[in-house]
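Form 7-S
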Amino acid sequence: MNTTMNSTPTPHRRLGRDLIIAGAMLAIALALAFLMPDRMRAQRILGVVMGLFVVFYANEVPKRIPSVNRCDPMTAQARRRFIGWTLVLGGLGYAVAWMIAPIRIAPLLAIFLLATALAVVFARITWDRPKGTPS
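Output:
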């Protein structure tokens, strides 16, 4: 009997969960494509779902980042929180852009907002890298 109280899913459970989420996303896309006559509304719904998908995984990404440099635990935790919150905001921006922007600019605006969040994350990682560390 396992008496540990570790709530972190094992890699096999994470893979199963991730496959279920991917299948649900495909099912939503297919359902929207075949069942919704209004293509514009289907695009918007799928864009919002994709943004929420990013928000969900933005919470997972920082937990998987290994500590490659030897900084103190508080600095590593601050970096993880920054990455998580930045990606959550990027995903929310993506979803909101699909909800309220005119359909002709929604895809570009959504990608721009998410790409900006990713650029900020990469800048923070680069900025925090100790001098002399290989890229």
